[in-house]
C-alpha cells in the first residue's frame, strides 16, 4: 500500500515512535536499540506486513576458575538469541 506506517516500541505503559516508513521515501529503517526490560514492537498499518530483525541477549553469570589473582569471579556474559517478529504469535 502507499500508506505511511508508524513503528513504535512499547515499554510498560509508554509507547515511543521509532520511525515512519514510506514506500517511496523510507521503505526501511536501520536502528541499533538496546532494551533492558520487556518490550513490544508495534506498527500502525492495517494492510501491510512489517518485519523486525534483531537479537535478544540474556545475561548469564559464568564463573571462571582461574583469574590473574587466582580467585573465582563472576562475570556477566550476553547470550545471543535471534528474534523473528515476522510471525503470528
UniProtKB/TrEMBL annotation:
Native organism: Aegilops tauschii subsp. strangulata (Goatgrass)
Name of the protein described by the UniProt record: Nucleoplasmin-like domain-containing protein
Taxonomy, superkingdom: Eukaryota
Pfam families listed in its UniProt record: NPL
Lineage: Eukaryota, Viridiplantae, Streptophyta, Embryophyta, Tracheophyta
Domain Nucleoplasmin-like residues, every copy: 2-55
InterPro entries, alphabetized: NPL
Amino acid at each position: 500500500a502507499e500508506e505511511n506506517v508508524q513503528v513504535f516500541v512499547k515499554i510498560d505503559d509508554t509507547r515511543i515512535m521509532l520511525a515512519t516508513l514510506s514506500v517511496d521515501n523510507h521503505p526501511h529503517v536501520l536502528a541499533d536499540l538496546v532494551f533492558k526490560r520487556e518490550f513490544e514492537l508495534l506498527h500502525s498499518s492495517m494492510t501491510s506486513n512489517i518485519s523486525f530483525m534483531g537479537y535478544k541477549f540474556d545475561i548469564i553469570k559464568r564463573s571462571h576458575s582461574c583469574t590473574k589473582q587466582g580467585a573465582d569471579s563472576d562475570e556477566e556474559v550476553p547470550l545471543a538469541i535471534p528474534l523473528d517478529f515476522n510471525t503470528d504469535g
